[in-house]
Amino acid sequence: MKFQTTAPDRKTLVKALAGHLGEEAVYSGPRSFAYTIGPVTVDREGAVILPDDLDGAGIQRFLESKGWLAPVDRLTISVPAEDLTVTAMYNLLLMLYSKGNLTYTYTTSDGKTVVIKPQDILHIPGLGFDGIIGYSPIALEKNAIGLGIASEEYGSKFFSNGARPSGILTHPNTVKNPKAVRESWNSAYGGSSNSNRVAILEEGMTFTPLSIPNNEAQFLETRKFQVEEICRIFRVPPHLVGNLEHATFSNIEHQSIDFAVHTIRPWLVRIEQSMNRALFTDQEKGRFYVQFNIDGLMRGDYKSRMEGYAIARQNGWMSANDIRALENQNPIPKEEGGDAYLVNGNMIPITTAMKAQTPAEPTQTAEQRSRERK
């Protein structure tokens, strides 16, 4: 591997590489006029040469940070004739000239790989730490979801056994055929269809339950907690998935508004920013933009909405038709005052109030008029 450099001079390049690699620079003399710095060689033209088995990414980043990495002017690539297609050449050139840039690799249904430029992808990053690769909430919280699945399987097996604890049948004497006794007991009292049946024990037999009672195992509490835990992963209020244990008539509205503000809104902002960045040209940005309207999700109860409309109406910044539009009602004709803006007080139009505030000319008395005639 060979890197052409644009360092000020060869001694500066050699000194910098020796400090970066922590190796001593050895000059070969007139034999090749090259410097050897560990596995790296700097030839007489100032090119940095690395062995083929050595990863040159670190040296490349170092030269780029110094601004000494020369651009590639000409590149020769050998491609078999059967692979020489427009798509293949485009992907190859894109990979070669995208070092340090973000690219997307897409595998088609027939197994072909296509490299796509960032400007051709609408990427909406989710949970992550670098803004590029998102993490799966299910993969991060697999233990919580696995516990929910395990408790569901336990409940299924528990109730399939008739919701009765398993135990030991004790006979005072020796049982000749214990398998037949067990099968007879299970067929008579096992399964949900045989639950709550009265057991008949003969020959002095006794039944001793062994399983932990359901309330001691806190089965129901575990099931309820896992519902809330999985809701917490996706920041969804439990009442939206049918868990109304902590929901009341007074707080469910605010929980829904909190869901819109703290769960939906952050995702909408990500989508807005990604679409505004990727879908508009430089000339269109600033003139056009994408914005979601979530007023419908933020609507409160009927009384709260009417009180808010009344304040807006009385203070002159909403007309009757503005309010009716938000309530999905037909507008009032303009000639009937549907578009009029009113102010508090006598509820008169703003234009009338402005006319009333204009100072009128003073009225002359008869004596003043007689004086003007003289």
What is the compact description of this entry?
The protein has 374 residues and is of the alpha+beta class. The protein contains twelve helices and nine strands.
Describe this structure in words.
The protein is of the alpha+beta class and 374 residues long. It has a five-stranded antiparallel β-sheet, covered by helices on one side. A two-stranded antiparallel ribbon has the order 6-7. It contains twelve helices and nine strands. Helix 5 packs antiparallel against helix 7.
How much helix, percentage-wise, in residues?
25-40%
- Evaluate the radius of gyration: 41 Å
Number of strands: 9
Q: Helix tally? A: 12
**Principal-axes shape call:** flat
Write the layout of secondary structure elements.
Blueprint (H helix, E strand, L loop, with lengths): L1 E2 L6 H12 L3 E3 L7 E3 L2 E3 L5 E2 L7 H10 L19 H11 L7 E4 L5 E4 L20 H4 L1 H19 L6 E4 L7 H12 L16 E4 L9 H15 L18 H27 L23 H13 L5 H7 L23 H8 L8 H8 L1
Antiparallel strand pairs: 1-5, 2-3, 3-4, 4-5, 6-7, 8-9
Defining traits:
374 residues; flat; 12 helices; alpha+beta; five-stranded antiparallel sheet
